[in-house]
Specification:
Length: 345
């Protein structure tokens, strides 16, 4: 049987999908408890949620499109700007390593993926991305911080690339920006070809409810709006979003845990002689060598991490979520045992 979605690893600590390991704001659960029958029996109204989201990001409400997770925003950008426009020889530039929905959405609309490898130590290949732009380029995916490396793309480089491809849609994916780095949003008035993606799955802990947002000037956002289904987010998720945005204390508290967890993971990697890359996100990429048995050993101890070794761009690597410090402590103990077993100690 083929099961939809990702396999559930079962019991234990989920450090494999960059989720919020601390859950969500108590206000979100409170809002869900107060959902009324009419919130369930009627089609949802988006007005309040769009206005609150626009206020939160400091942009005009006409620049906001709520999506069923940012995943939907990625696919609908390709549908709106390539399939709907009937572009048949489109090229989408995808710097590596990349989040799977970029090549998947590219393939879904019949476009060609132009993959650009990273520089040493995953340095962002700005010149090579600019060099890959052609008259056929329709989309460029810029993910900052990058999943899975945690590396940021400098704001000046986002700007240079966007200017170098004025006829393409530049999708700046900031799914993890709340954990480190500076958002491109304040620059966006000067960039009519940039769509910026954010999600409430990660920092806000709403992954199970599926809420994301695309932000952009109307000329680049409206073709996506035109293909997005009218009731793409359910009423319970909308109630949760309002509550999450109203809790200004939840995010800084969780971000502080993430920062501390990252530092502890770095220190553990140094002690264990494992290569790692300092990350601006809520996960750390670690090179362990033969990753599959390593991931299995951790899973046997109920610690689930992501095996990234099958991606040729991240050979020998695993990716571990850095969330609540106590969880990270358990993950580090499991990491230490797995290294000890491998060394025959
Ligand atoms: C880089 C990146 N972009 C977008 C997403 C999509 O997030 P969601 O669909 O949960 O909003 C993810 C989720 O893992 C991600 O890693």
């Amino acid at each position: 049987m083929v099961i939809q979605g990702y396999p559930n690893p079962g019991d234990g600590l989920r450090l494999h999908l960059n989720e919020n390991t601390g859950g969500c704001s108590p206000r979100v659960l409170e809002a869900i408890r107060h959902v009324r029958p009419a919130d369930v029996s009627t089609y949802p109204s988006y007005r309040d949620a769009v206005l609150a989201t626009a206020r939160h990001f400091g942009v005009d409400p006409d620049w906001v499109l709520l999506t069923n997770g940012l995943d939907e925003g990625i696919l609908m950008t390709a549908v709106g700007h390539i399939a709907r426009a009937r572009v048949c020889d489109a090229e989408n530039i995808i710097p590596l390593p990349a989040f799977d929905p970029y090549p998947n959405s590219t393939a879904a609309v019949g476009a060609t993926a132009v993959r650009v490898p990273p520089g040493p130590d995953f340095a962002f290949p700005t010149e090579a991305v600019i060099g890959a732009v052609t008259p056929r380029t329709r989309m460029i995916f810029l993910n900052t911080p990058n999943n899975p490396t945690g590396q940021l793309i400098p704001i000046a480089d986002l700007a240079r690339i966007s200017r170098a491809a004025p006829d393409a849609v530049v999708l700046v994916d900031e799914a993890y920006i709340e954990f480190g780095g500076t958002s491109f949003i304040p620059e966006m008035a000067s960039f009519p070809n940039v769509l910026l993606g954010r999600t409430f799955s990660k920092a806000y802990g709403l992954a199970g409810l599926r809420v994301g947002v695309l932000i952009g000037q109307p000329q680049v956002l409206d073709p996506v709006r035109a293909v997005t289904l009218p009731f793409n987010i359910n009423g319970v998720a909308l109630a949760a979003l309002g509550a999450a945005l109203s809790d200004s204390e939840f995010l800084p508290r969780y971000a502080a845990q993430v920062h501390e967890s990252r530092e502890r993971l770095y220190a553990a990697c140094r002690r264990l002689g494992l290569q790692y890359w300092p990350s601006a996100a809520n996960y750390v990429l670690v090179r362990v060598g033969d990753a599959a048995p390593f991931v299995q050993a951790l899973a046997a101890g109920q610690i689930h991490v992501r095996d990234r070794s099958k991606d040729p761009a991240t050979p020998g690597c695993i990716r571990m979520t850095a969330g609540i410090v106590e969880h990270t402590g358990r993950a580090i103990e499991a990491l230490e045992s797995a290294v000890a077993v491998r060394q025959g100690r």
